[in-house]
């Protein structure tokens, strides 16, 4: 049978579970006798004590104790009948309590009651006709062939038809009309051969159907068309049980649920029955060979125990094989299955796959850009293992939308403002009765993109002019171009390139130093305008800044000053391009009276330039030092990252 649940959705979904219904017996039936159960029997007046004269049998279709039947005589049975006969309360056998010595005919009526638990008794009737004892009548002599004991035949069940005994008449006076017959319907036959009778079973017998038979053999005589019984004898046959019934379980599969973290103790009582008797029905319960030591069973009662506390996360189901074995030879056994499902409890907090997550995201990434997946698991099931995640005390640019496991940006990020973020992520399950949480540290490094042009510190403007003495030795660094880039890595590595004709000066592409390449000649006594482009190495496209460096070769120490900026050539362009110079102020050239003024002005500009240069370096290094102090309490990152993010270069 199946139980089906169906929702009203579109499309609808269904779920089904198998139902097993075991009908437990209740005492709803009482013992009954069949309508033709009334018996009429005859016995001889000289029948010996303990002679079984009849057997009654009532039926109760219930099981176990509900089908127990007790037999007794009705209170209406006469005192004479009670004195002569007794009734076995369990088997329903009616037998003589004394030796009969009756010389007259009498008829005794025995009303038998069959009672069951909480039932009104059923009744039947046995009419016993006692014939006068015959004087020197023939008697029955029994020669046992089959196994016997104390004048009782012992016949194993399931035996095919077998010769059990040979019966003879003793004391026969030669009257040929005497014969032996079996009264009633029993699975035995008498076959007449000459002056002997062969007693056999007509079919194989079943101990579980009936364990004992009483064969009433009578000596009968025909007298003028009527048959008269002149003597009888009862042969008792016990059907010996053989172990032909294996143990029986009412169900082949037991299913139960046990909550994990349970206390060791009783789980389930399994009970089998065996239709055989004595040792053949004595059962022993054992667990299968491959069953672990988590469970054990009482070998006598079948009580199943759990020996330890169960952990669903280690093993969610257990399948146990229980065997019931009888004590017969050979022994028979039956095995059933016990299926145990361990019910989950919320005893596992979310577990992050790493103790510290490190991610990289480029600056200026679009809002809601994915940063990285934060791996987390929960060994519980259902709502106990359903995880929600969020950033703890977050005022930063990161969040976990919809409580999923992917970290996203929620605002634009500028690496030059902050190049690293450190925060905690909380994971919580939806378990009951309480929710369990875990946290993990997350570090996000902001990767630089080339979004800052080089910034030229020296010279301070395109109008700056420096006087170079004609006596300057070749190889002397006369000045330098100094620039900085707020980006990092290749994005901040600068290259200095002179665009126009620079002879007799050269520019170092890495340092920006401007050096006199050769001895100055007469043609070099003039203004030299060097158009220098400062480029970073950013990808995919480098950024540039340009500046004019104005060098005035003059044998005086007069200060140099430009009234207008040189005209910028198109760039990038071949290095052969000629610059279009801007004439120096005539008042500042070759005026003897102004030599000292120009000298002081030039020295002042140089001092200002050097001060700006040194100040810029100091501020830059203070910024880096402050950033290092801020991150002292953070965990160490790989050496390559330290080199990348904290280099002073």
Describe the protein's architecture and organization:
One of its GO terms (biological process) is homophilic cell adhesion via plasma membrane adhesion molecules. It is found in: Membrane. The structure is a single chain. This protein has 649 residues and is mainly β. It folds into 4 domains: 102 residues, Immunoglobulin-like (Sandwich); 91 residues, Immunoglobulin-like (Sandwich); 97 residues, Cadherins (Immunoglobulin-like, Sandwich), CATH 2.60.40.60; 165 residues, Cadherins (Immunoglobulin-like, Sandwich), CATH 2.60.40. The protein is built from 3 helices and 43 strands. The protein is rod-shaped and about 180 Å long. The two termini are 80 Å apart. The relative contact order is 0.06.
Helical region count?
3
Give me the Rg, rounded: 59 Å
Low-confidence stretches: 573-581, 583-601, 627-649
CATH-defined architecture of the largest domain: Sandwich
Q: State which percent range the strand residues make up.
A: 35-45%
Shape: rod-shaped
Helix and strand content put the structural class at: mainly beta
What is the CATH homologous superfamily assignment of the largest domain?
Answer: Cadherins
Say how many strands there are: 43
Give the CATH class of the largest domain. Answer: Mainly Beta
Task: Tally the structural domains.
Answer: 4
Protein name: Cadherin domain-containing protein
Transmembrane segments: 595-619
InterPro entries: Cadherin-like_dom, Cadherin-like_sf, Cadherin_CS, Protocadherin/Cadherin-CA
GO molecular function: calcium ion binding
């Amino acid at each position: 049978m199946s139980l089906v649940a169906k929702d009203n959705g579109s499309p609808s979904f269904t779920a089904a579970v198998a139902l097993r219904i075991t009908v437990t017996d209740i005492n709803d039936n009482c013992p009954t006798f069949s309508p033709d159960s009334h018996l009429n029997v005859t016995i001889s007046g000289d029948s010996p004590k303990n002679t079984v004269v009849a057997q009654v049998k009532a039926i109760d279709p219930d099981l176990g104790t509900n089908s127990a039947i007790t037999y007794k005589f009705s209170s209406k049975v006469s005192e004479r009948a009670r004195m002569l006969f007794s009734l076995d309360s369990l088997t329903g056998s009616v037998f003589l309590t004394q030796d009969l010595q009756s010389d007259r005919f009498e008829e005794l009526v025995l009303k038998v009651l069959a009672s069951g638990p909480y039932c009104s008794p059923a009744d039947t009737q046995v009419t016993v006709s006692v014939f006068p004892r015959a004087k020197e009548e023939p008697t029955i002599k029994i020669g046992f062939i089959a196994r016997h004991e104390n004048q009782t035949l012992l016949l194993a069940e399931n035996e095919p038809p077998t010769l059990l005994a040979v019966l003879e008449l003793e004391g026969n006076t030669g009257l040929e009309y005497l014969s032996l017959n079996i009264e009633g319907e029993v699975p035995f036959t008498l076959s007449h051969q000459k002056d002997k009778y062969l007693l056999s079973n007509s079919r194989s017998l079943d101990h579980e159907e009936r364990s004992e038979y009483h064969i009433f053999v009578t000596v009968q005589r025909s007298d003028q068309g009527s048959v008269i019984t002149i003597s009888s004898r009862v042969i008792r046959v016990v059907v010996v049980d053989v172990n032909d019934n294996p143990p029986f379980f009412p169900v082949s599969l037991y299913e139960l649920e046990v909550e994990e973290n349970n206390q060791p103790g009783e789980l389930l009582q399994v009970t089998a029955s065996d239709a055989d008797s004595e040792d053949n029905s004595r059962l022993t319960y054992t667990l299968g060979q491959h069953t672990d030591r988590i469970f054990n069973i009482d070998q006598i009662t079948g009580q199943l125990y759990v020996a330890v506390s169960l952990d669903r996360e280690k093993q969610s189901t257990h399948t146990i094989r229980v065997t019931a074995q009888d004590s017969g030879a050979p022994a028979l056994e039956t095995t059933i299955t016990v299926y145990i499902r361990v019910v989950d409890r919320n005893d596992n907090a979310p577990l992050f796959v790493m103790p510290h997550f490190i991610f990289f995201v480029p600056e200026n990434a679009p809002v809601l850009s994915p940063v990285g997946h934060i791996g987390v698991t929960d060994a519980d099931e259902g709502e106990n293992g359903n995880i929600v995640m969020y950033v703890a005390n977050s005022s930063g640019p990161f969040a976990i939308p919809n409580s999923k496991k992917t970290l996203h940006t929620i605002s634009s990020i500028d690496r030059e403002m902050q190049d690293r973020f450190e925060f905690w992520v909380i994971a919580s399950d939806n378990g009951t009765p309480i929710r369990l949480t875990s946290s993990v540290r997350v570090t996000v490094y902001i990767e630089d993109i080339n979004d800052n042009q080089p910034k030229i510190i020296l010279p301070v403007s395109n109008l700056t002019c420096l006087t170079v003495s004609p006596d300057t030795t070749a190889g002397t660094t006369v000045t330098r171009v100094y620039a900085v880039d707020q980006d990092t890595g290749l994005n901040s590595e600068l290259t200095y390139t002179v665009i126009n004709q620079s002879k007799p000066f050269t520019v170092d592409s890495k340092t920006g130093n401007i050096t006199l390449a050769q001895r100055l000649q007469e043609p070099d006594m003039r203004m030299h305008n060097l158009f220098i482009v400062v480029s970073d190495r950013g990808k995919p496209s480098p950024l540039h800044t340009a500046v004019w460096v104005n060098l005035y070769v003059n044998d005086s120490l007069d200060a140099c000053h430009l009234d207008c900026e040189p005209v910028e050539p198109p760039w990038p362009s071949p290095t052969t391009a000629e610059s279009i110079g801007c004439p120096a102020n005539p008042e500042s050239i070759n005026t003897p009276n102004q030599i000292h003024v120009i000298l002081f002005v030039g020295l002042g500009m140089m001092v200002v330039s050097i001060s700006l240069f040194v100040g810029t370096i100091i501020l830059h290094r203070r910024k880096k030092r402050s950033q290092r102090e801020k991150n002292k309490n953070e965990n160490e990152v790989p050496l390559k990252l330290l080199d990348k993010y904290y280099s002073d270069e």
